[in-house]
């Protein structure tokens, strides 16, 4: 009789759970019920079966694939930029955690903090027209100019145009891929993937070593949808991955936008179909911004350690209606420099004209008073300031 | 003191009313209140003033412009295809009569019966792209294939493409113009106008001799909207005549459709704006057909001599749900050949395989039983057949 492996190391335990393969839902149930991967593996066969794991999965937990495990551990150790974030870890992005079917963990190469930034996905056809690629590029640049992160799938066509434009303007871009992060698909995008690792992030739910498999790409789309506040479809055939991403985004409660196109362009069919079905019509990012605050609030109220209040996610933060009344000039300056999305200290310094030291002190005041909040080193206006008429106690 | 001219001739009287110019509403009130133009002119100054006519208009009725009157009469006499149809005449198209701000009369060159046929307007930019013109042409051909009449404004760009395509497939097309029918604007469209007179109709509310005036073109748009069951906008700038036509159509309770276009095409702005504002997204005529039956019913129930029932215009005729049960094979054949829009006997003969004599007899039976109706020589299914389960008394 095998006995459960005593994986004291959380990473090894999570890898074993991921590498076990098969149906995801039972493994996720086990992980969540047990609280962490080490406990999940220690729980034993009876508990595994109770969570719904089949014989093959139980067998894989008893005797994990040593080579695959070693390969994944080796990849994780190869760079400080390589991480595996467990679904039950506070660092796991809140939006994805609250979307349907979250993965057991996320492999990240690059800046994992980006996963907490407000992200908008740009998706579309691999065989996009030059116009479609130009539109995707324009939209990506507009998102970056608003300090929103551009998410896409590293595929040819629209995806590549969106990532490329983000990199060109030194904006934030995240690629969600359907292979292990030591692979690259399509192979010709290796340089782009490297650039994204360096200046953004590339993520996957698949362990290093996982080759491109057709079946994994629709699953990749659900990650893209789950991580994003909104999905923009630019040129897509009626049946395409982009349409799947749009459907999944809609099911996850995210905003779906489509760029309209001429009936003479076959790649407009999917977008025009989405418009008929109620997607927002998008010509520029200005069409999307007014829809984001409720979802930004979702992001804001689901910070680690806080319970998500789904009911509150439907109302516009009052801050959009009128700013607070501050009695200190400097506080007012800083408040005005803050946005509803996170901004780093350097940018805030430039916006406010204050020194970083002074800025930090004022931000702390604003945070204590409930006017501002900080997430992963970026500051933003609190989605629900205490009152729009009260002044702040500067003490 | 002048005394009212004793115009015994209804045409002369109506021309005098039209040529009086100035505000339209008081003259229309006078015409409708008095029942016809002869009575309106005979009514005298006190009645004219009570209807709201100003001093200048009263003066013009007392002493009409003899030259303009003679010119208009001369034009009307020049061809049997030239007509002037009074608003209070049974031949005046019902849809336009029930739209806001109908004109006092319609000058028609060509086939006046076409004004009673179901009509769809195709409008758009004068500086349309080749793609836009191709789309307008495709849509016009699709409308003609469904035996719907194509209405437009004889302008350059989209209008011309729609008229041209209709003429090419020998379909029905009506041009609504903003000048007298002895003029042509733009001058280069003289040949197209002649073709439309010969194979369709060209109409105007302005008396022969009226030159192109910028102020008359928005008014022309309201006629186009009022005559049509639906308006399709293909490529339009945000501020343009086509957008005005769309607004007027919407105000008249007509369906408004817009063809989506790329954000990179400045002439898509207007269309995409309309889509945001709730216009139907149209890629082909199939998108429009399901919306027509309620309006066809409006056309059907407002035949001369019948009262319009606005309440009934909002429900779909039951005939769309299920056809009637006929116990005679030939009746069934004819019923199946009939459409919800008018079809002529030749076409019905081809569809049913019956001789015209036999067809006429059966159509008469169907008409008497309330299953079919005839308007201006074209047959169609009655919008509200007596019952979808009863059989017809063939007697």
From TrEMBL, chains A, B:
Q: Where are the transmembrane segments?
A: none
* Any single biological process term in GO: DNA-mediated transformation
Q: Which domain of life is it from?
A: Bacteria
User: Which positions fall inside the Smf/DprA SLOG domain?
Assistant: 84-291
Q: Which residues are in the DprA winged helix domain?
A: 328-377
Which InterPro entries does the record match to this protein?
A: DprA, DprA_WH, DrpA_SLOG, WH-like_DNA-bd_sf
Q: PANTHER family, alphabetically?
A: PROTEIN SMF
- Family of the protein in this entry: Belongs to the DprA/Smf family.
Name of the featured protein: Uncharacterized protein
Task: Give the species this sequence originates from.
Answer: Stenotrophomonas ginsengisoli
Q: What is the lineage of its organism?
A: Bacteria, Pseudomonadati, Pseudomonadota, Gammaproteobacteria, Lysobacterales
């Amino acid at each position: 009789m095998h006995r459960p492996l005593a994986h004291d190391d959380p990473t090894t335990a999570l890898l074993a759970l991921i590498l076990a393969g098969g149906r995801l839902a039972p493994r996720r149930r086990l992980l969540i019920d047990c609280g962490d991967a080490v406990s999940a593996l220690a729980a034993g066969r009876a508990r595994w079966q109770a969570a719904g794991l089949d014989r093959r999965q139980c067998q894989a937990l008893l005797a994990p694939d040593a080579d695959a495990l070693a390969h994944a551990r080796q990849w994780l150790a190869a760079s400080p930029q390589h991480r595996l974030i467990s679904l039950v870890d506070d660092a796991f992005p809140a939006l994805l955690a609250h979307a349907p079917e979250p993965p057991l963990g996320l492999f990240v190469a690059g800046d994992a903090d980006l996963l907490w930034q407000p992200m908008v996905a740009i998706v579309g056809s691999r065989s996009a027209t030059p116009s479609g690629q130009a539109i995707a590029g324009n939209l990506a640049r507009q998102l970056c100019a608003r300090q929103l992160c551009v998410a896409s799938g590293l595929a040819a066509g629209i995806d590549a145009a969106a990532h490329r434009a983000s990199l060109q303007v030194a904006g934030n871009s995240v690629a969600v891929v359907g292979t292990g992060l030591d692979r690259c698909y399509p192979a010709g995008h290796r340089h782009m993937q490297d650039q994204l690792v360096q200046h953004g992030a590339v993520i996957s739910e698949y362990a290093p070593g996982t080759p491109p498999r057709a079946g994994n790409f629709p699953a990749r789309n659900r990650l893209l949808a789950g991580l994003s506040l909104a999905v923009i479809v630019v040129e897509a055939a009626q049946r395409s991955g982009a349409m799947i991403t749009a459907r999944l985004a809609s099911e996850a409660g995210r905003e779906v936008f489509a760029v309209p196109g001429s009936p003479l362009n076959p790649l407009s069919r999917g977008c025009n179909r989405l418009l008929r079905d109620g997607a927002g019509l998008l010509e520029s990012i200005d069409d999307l911004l007014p829809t984001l605050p409720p979802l930004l609030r979702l992001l804001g109220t689901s910070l680690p350690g806080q319970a998500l209040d789904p009911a509150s996610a439907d109302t516009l933060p009052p801050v959009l209606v009128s700013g607070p009344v501050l009695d200190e000039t400097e506080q007012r300056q800083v408040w005005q420099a803050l946005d509803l999305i996170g901004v780093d200290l350097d940018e805030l310094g430039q916006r406010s004209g204050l020194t970083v030291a002074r800025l930090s002190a004022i931000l702390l005041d604003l945070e204590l008073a409930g006017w501002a909040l900080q997430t992963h080193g970026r500051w933003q206006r609190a989605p629900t300031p205490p009152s729009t008429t009260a002044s702040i106690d500067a003490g």
